[in-house]
């Protein structure tokens, strides 16, 4: 039985939620946001997690080490709006024990 | 005026398959879609990606699934109104519906099946102050190239890093007096051919390429006159007649949200214990656009919902008539085009 990890997610209204994310369900950050309904349906995860829409863009707020961006993610972010140096696509960050304590903020809806 | 039995809004997999199930009941369908081609998200977002949960297909490319569905429904001769978005709906005295698109095309149908997925695809617009002003009345900002002739001998600035930005830069370089392509980084995501062609046109001085660059503002009183481009920490002003941002499309529920339907979590509430009807009798919602307890946004669920929904329309159009389920294997499929598909007869022959 693998453990749940704690993640802090700041929603688009600026409210921070500390949530538990299971590591044994092959989830990503975008799916955790939907699981806890921290953004309205239809405003996040539009492409379903293929790095093709940037609706799950988020800013990484602390220095937890997460795997580097892939080509698809890099390309999508280069066309997205409100991009900052700490921007990532939530659907490309997988929930593993290595990212325990990660803090992110959802980028505005665009 | 287009007349049909079921007016389907959305040409995604659920909308397409509805035509087949309706056809088996001799009901005619017409489909409206805002995109120029059928397939919805499957064609627009991920035509080359595989889907693994279509029963009977261990793996099928989204684009291939759309082609197969199109082939499957061909004999039921669906009508299409493409490139138009369903805007208003009026219920007539006899309970039928009149649906008008953004281009004024009118459709009259007994029932309406909304199979709109996540909504109609709209261009993703850069968030720049004052851009709305230039979007109107041909003041210089366009999100589509509808009539290329409009750009003849004009100066054009395109921004974006995908296929449409590359393809339109190439195409307009033959027509416009100048084409400047601006992208936030040096890498482009597009077909290799297009990337090579832009490289070639850049070297020939036909396309001006500014990377890494980003449009950060405009000048011009009544019309756009120039754009401000930030590149390598510097701001440069480039004269232009048109600015075409091509950052892809994103679905929005759009005008359907104002049709008086009960909406929850950006989806339309339906009666899932019976027929996927909305709070307005005669209007149904199927596929990703609807919601009910336990809803899953899967293509295969959309197919199931479409199948039950057309039964309800059959009852609406033939009140009191008993319907007996027939298997296609047993009864075959009679197309509206006169074709017939049927199982081969078994050979009955004695062996001596």
Topology:
The complex is a heterodimer of chains A (110) and B (352).
Chain A: E1 4-10, E2 16-22, H1 29-35, E3 57-60, H2 71-77, E4 87-89, E5 103-106
Parallel strand pairs in A: 1-5
Antiparallel strand pairs in A: 1-2, 3-4, 3-5
Chain B: E1 2-9, H1 13-24, E2 29-33, H2 41-44, E3 50-51, E4 60-61, H3 62-73, E5 79-82, E6 86-91, E7 97-101, E8 106-114, E9 120-123, H4 131-135, E10 155-159, H5 163-172, E11 178-182, H6 192-203, E12 207-210, E13 213-219, E14 226-231, E15 234-239, E16 242-245, E17 249-252, E18 263-264, E19 267-269, E20 283-285, E21 290-291, H7 299-317, H8 328-331, E22 333-334, E23 340-341
Parallel strand pairs in B: 1-2, 1-8, 2-5, 8-20, 10-11, 10-16, 11-12, 19-21
Antiparallel strand pairs in B: 3-4, 6-7, 7-8, 9-17, 13-14, 14-15, 18-19, 22-23
Task: Give the CATH level 1 class of the largest domain in chain B.
Answer: Alpha Beta
Report how far apart the termini of chain B are. Answer: 65 Å
Task: Indicate how many domains the architecture of chain B comprises.
Answer: 2
CATH fold-type name of the largest domain in chain B? FAD/NAD(P)-binding domain
């Amino acid at each position: 039985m693998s453990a749940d990890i704690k993640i802090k997610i700041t929603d688009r209204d600026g409210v921070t939620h500390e949530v538990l994310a299971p590591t044994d369900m092959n989830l990503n950050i975008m799916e955790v946001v939907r699981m806890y309904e921290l953004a309205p349906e239809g405003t996040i995860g539009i492409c379903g997690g293929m790095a093709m829409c940037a609706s799950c863009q988020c800013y990484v707020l602390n220095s937890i080490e997460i795997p580097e961006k892939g080509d698809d993610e890099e390309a999508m972010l280069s066309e997205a709006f409100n991009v900052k140096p700490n921007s990532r696509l939530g659907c490309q960050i997988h929930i593993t024990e290595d990212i325990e304590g990660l803090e992110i903020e959802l980028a505005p809806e665009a | 005026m287009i007349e049909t039995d079921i007016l389907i809004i959305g040409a995604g997999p659920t909308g397409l398959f509805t035509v087949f199930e309706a056809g088996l009941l001799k009901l005619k369908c017409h489909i409206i879609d805002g995109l120029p081609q059928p397939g919805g998200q499957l064609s627009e977002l991920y035509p080359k990606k595989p889907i693994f949960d279509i029963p009977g297909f261990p793996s099928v490319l989204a684009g291939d699934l759309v082609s197969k569905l199109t082939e499957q429904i061909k004999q039921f001769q669906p009508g299409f109104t493409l490139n138009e978005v369903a805007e208003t709906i009026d219920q007539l005295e006899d309970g039928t519906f009149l649906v008008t698109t953004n281009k004024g095309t009118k459709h009259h149908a007994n029932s309406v099946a909304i199979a709109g997925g996540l909504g109609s695809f709209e261009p993703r617009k850069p968030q720049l102050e004052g851009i709305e002003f230039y979007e109107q009345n041909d003041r210089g900002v366009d999100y589509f190239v509808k009539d290329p002739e409009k750009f003849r001998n004009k100066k054009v600035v395109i921004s974006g890093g995908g296929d449409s930005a590359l393809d339109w830069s190439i195409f307009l370089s033959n027509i416009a007096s100048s084409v400047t392509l601006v992208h936030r980084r040096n890498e482009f995501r597009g077909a290799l051919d297009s990337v090579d062609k832009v490289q070639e046109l850049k070297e020939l001085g036909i396309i001006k390429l500014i990377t890494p660059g980003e449009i950060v503002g405009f000048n011009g009183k009544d019309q756009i006159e120039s754009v401000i481009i930030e590149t390598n920490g510097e701001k440069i002003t480039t004269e232009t007649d048109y600015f075409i941002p091509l950052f892809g499309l994103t679905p929005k529920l759009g005008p359907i949200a104002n049709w008086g339907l009960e909406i929850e979590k950006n989806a339309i509430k339906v009666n899932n214990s019976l027929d996927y009807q909305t709070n307005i009798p005669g209007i149904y919602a199927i596929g990703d656009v609807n919601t009910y307890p336990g809803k899953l946004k899967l293509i295969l669920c959309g197919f199931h919902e479409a199948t039950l929904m057309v039964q309800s329309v059959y009852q609406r159009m033939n009140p009191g008539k008993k319907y007996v389920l027939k298997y296609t294997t047993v009864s075959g499929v009679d197309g509206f085009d006169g074709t017939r598909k049927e199982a081969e007869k078994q050979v009955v022959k004695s062996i001596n």
